[in-house]
Amino acid sequence: MHAVGNFIDGSFLPAQSGKTLNDFDPATEKIVATIPRSQTEDVESAVAAAHSAQEGWANLTLEQRANWLDKIADALEEKTEQIAQTESMDTGKPISLARRVDAARSVSNFRFFAEFGRQQTQQTFQMEDALNVVHRSPVGTVGLITPWNLPLYLLTWKVAPALLMGNTIIAKPSEITPLTAHLLAETVLELELPKGVFNLIHGLGPEAGQAILEHPDIKAISFTGGTETGRIVARTAAPMFKKLSLELGGKNATVIFADADLQSAVEGAVRAAFTNSGQVCLCGSRIFVEEKIFKQFKDLFVENVNAIKIGNPMDETTEMGTVISPEHLLKVESYIRLAEQEGGVILAGGTREMTGYNGPDGVGAFLRPTVVDNLSYTSRCATEEIFGPMVTLHSFTSEQEALQMVNSSEYGLAGSVWTSNLERGERFSSQIDSGIVWVNTWLHRDLRTPFGGVKNSGVGREGGQWSLDFFSELTNICIKGSNGN
Ligand code: TXE
């Protein structure tokens, strides 16, 4: 167990109050670290450090900052195994997933934005008698607040473009999964990134997080987390006219038409449902299947779900580890009980029994992947975000009916559509109220594309140009008498 500090002005520090919080491994339920329980005064120190660093960092060229991003990417790549092990321990996710997804993507977030930055050209708009030149400047000090499901992956997705565009950072990772953010702070310290450019504050959302939202010198908030917290973020930051990006929850649909390749649709639906124990905001937790193949799909789906190897997250062959915490386990289980009360039929899972593993001491937040049939698509289990290894199955008879069911959700983040008719795939997808839809695949990401949701899934887009726009301010300079030559 080690004591993790805040990272302020290039130094690791305890909270000024001296208070700490415990960080647990959800597979063993043992304390693995303590973190500072930061308050307003800690955020104030971090903002003061960021302010002192702002001008120097903004004065570097885009190329120089892109070079910094590449250096960080290289250093993180060397720590791939350490990142994967740390993330697996902190979240309970399988080590293979932590390597393949969390560690790899954290590196590629920095590499991608370095390269993308270098490709930027200045925008100009020529008029007959004047030239408009669009200048970009940093927003200033920005607050980055991130959740527990993909801790370093989601943090670096914000840190890389924020640094690239010349901002200084106050980052707050989830108090449940603080360790890879600490590793990132250690990395930038080793690389001697100018002090105060990247600051890290640990602590509880309503304390440290809220202090970040309320600080008048933090000019933008990029938040990923639950919808209810998103409301608090918006309520606090919007009246201060801070720039806001909100990536919130989802209740995403997987839609399978009868003409789909059944085997790949089943595999895709299983992956979409249970990757990271169903704790990815893009997970497909409502599965709509055309009536004609419903029975066939259901049998094959359940067979595949039952074959998922659950167990010790550190075991190389484990495919599903724990959910994030014992508290979250209880939340997901309460939905399983609710499903039964609502008349649902549990086709798979529903219990904590593991296939031969229940943590070293028979403890741990392990839950079998759970499939529920026979519930209305309007039931609570099929409409509320559970964010765990639990999905509901529903059948439809027409494209129109499927669309109506899918769009009945309050959320609109992502979805996947499975059909051999690609024209229908695109047409149907374009009518789904959602920021991202995949046809015949899931979580296939090109980092240049817009990422974000509609309805209760958030406001704004991240990715490629959208991230650069969020983390910069534009000044249009109109020069009369210039013909642009
Ligand atoms: O998220 P929170 P939680 C969903 C999922 C999950 C639910 C709650 O349904 O069950 O959200 O998860 C910080 N001011 N998602 O409790 O609370 C908090 O410390 C400022 C979807 O973990 O939203 C953490 O750093 N910050 C999701 C971050 O917000 C505050 C991923 C997210 O925590 C704050 C995770 C406050 N008042 C959960 N309160 C996704 N879309 O990817 C909390 N925080």
Overview of the structural elements:
By secondary structure, this protein is of the alpha/beta class. The chain folds into two domains: 2-248 and 457-477, Aldehyde Dehydrogenase, Chain A, domain 1 (3-Layer(aba) Sandwich), CATH 3.40.605; 252-439, Aldehyde Dehydrogenase, Chain A, domain 2 (3-Layer(aba) Sandwich). It is 40% helix and 22% strand. The chain is built from 15 helices and 23 strands. A seven-stranded mixed sheet has the order 15-16-17-14-13-19-20, with helices on both faces. Strands 10-9-8-11-12-22 form a six-stranded mixed sheet, sandwiched between helices. A three-stranded mixed sheet has the order 1-5-4, with no helix packed on it. Strand 9 (168-172), helix 6 (179-190) and strand 10 (198-200) form a beta-alpha-beta unit. Helix 2 (62-78) runs antiparallel to helix 4 (95-118) and helix 4 (95-118) packs parallel to helix 5. The protein is globular, with a radius of gyration of 23 Å. 52% of the residues are buried. Bound molecules: ligand TXE. Ligand TXE binds at residues 145-149, 172, 174-175, 205-206, 209-210, 213, 224-226, 229, 232, 247-249, 281, 385, 387.
| CATH homolog superfamily of the largest domain | Aldehyde Dehydrogenase, Chain A, domain 1
Largest sheet: 7 strands, mixed
Amino-to-carboxy terminus distance: 63 Å
What shape does the CA trace take?
globular
List bound small molecules: ligand TXE
- CATH hierarchy, class of the largest domain: Alpha Beta
Rg (CA only):
23 Å
Question: From the structure provided, what is the oligomeric state, counting identical versus distinct chains?
Answer: single chain
Number of strand elements: 23
The main sheet orders its strands as 15-16-17-14-13-19-20
Mean pLDDT: 96
Derived from helix and strand composition plus strand pairing, the structural class reads: alpha/beta
Beta fraction: 15-25%
Architecture of the largest domain, CATH level 2?
A: 3-Layer(aba) Sandwich
Spans of at least 5 consecutive residues with low confidence: none
